[in-house]
């Protein structure tokens, strides 16, 4: 192909592929949101099984994770169920609207340790909620609104701006402010300002992006956690509340684990390390409630990179 033609062809091809991806997602959102909740959950089983088979390489890595990480801990980690639950997460996310939440989920939503959060809200205008990739954290948006939390989260940048902007609007329609992270966005300072102004910050905190995390012991092996939530707590003095949305047979449980303060040492790195260790211990307890509903299939432990 002539070089001058390729300069025109490839951008057009990329545009068409991204537009198709966006329209495909919008189509399935339109279909899924009219279906009953239990049927959407049922769909996750055949779709998750197909996903498990056709992504055999990551499935094999999860079996290695099972043997090296979870079997010594006597946890019944099942890679097939993990893939099914990961498929369920995406189906539920595309299904979720405020109307669907009110109709199917709100009456089956259980909130654990809410009193601890209410006490903290009397002391601080905003709180830091650190979540693992467990259950469906998107459901925490309407659930948090129902208990008067003013939520904000950070979204990872995507190459497909159509999909990124649509998901941003979709989540904001549920009642949360979304800021886009990434290089050059000054995300940390923005979060600090938002926290002081009264926003409750939700941060997925069980894996780092771009291999840029801090080493921490997690299920007795060295993992890489993002330093952001702990650094934000250290800078502002606001406690961290480890939180998970845990799947139940008919809905979800919003579980607030014990809040903690990041200890202040002369060496900031030591403070960060100790804070991450406390967060890691909290996540171990939350994930052990249903280890197969922790559907983080990306590398977590340093040996997996």
Briefly say what this structure is.
This protein is α/β, with parallel strands linked by helices. The protein is built from 11 helices and 9 strands.
What would your notes on this structure say?
By secondary structure, the protein is α/β, with parallel strands linked by helices. It contains eleven helices and nine strands. Helix 2 (37-54) crosses helix 3 and helix 9 packs across helix 10 (228-236). The longest helix is centred in the first third of the chain and has 30 residues, at 3-32.
Chart the SSEs and their pairings.
Layout: H1 3-32, H2 37-54, H3 56-70, H4 79-95, H5 98-105, E1 109-112, H6 114-121, E2 128-131, H7 140-146, E3 151-155, H8 161-174, E4 177-180, H9 187-196, E5 200-204, E6 214-218, E7 221-225, H10 228-236, E8 240-247, E9 252-256, H11 268-287
Helix pairs in contact: 1-4, 1-8, 2-3, 2-4, 9-10
Query: What's the number of helices?
Result: 11
Taking strands numbered 1, 2, ... along the chain, how are they ordered across the largest sheet? 1-9-8-2-5-3-4
Helix-strand pattern: HHHHHEHEHEHEHEEEHEEH
Calculate the terminal CA-CA distance, rounded to whole Å. 37 Å
Which residue ranges are poorly predicted, with pLDDT under 50 across at least 5 consecutive positions? none
Largest sheet: 7 strands, mixed
Shape: globular
- Based on secondary structure, the structural category is alpha/beta
Average pLDDT figure? 93
* Number of strand elements: 9
Q: What is the alpha-carbon Rg in Å?
A: 20 Å
Proportion in helices? 40-55%
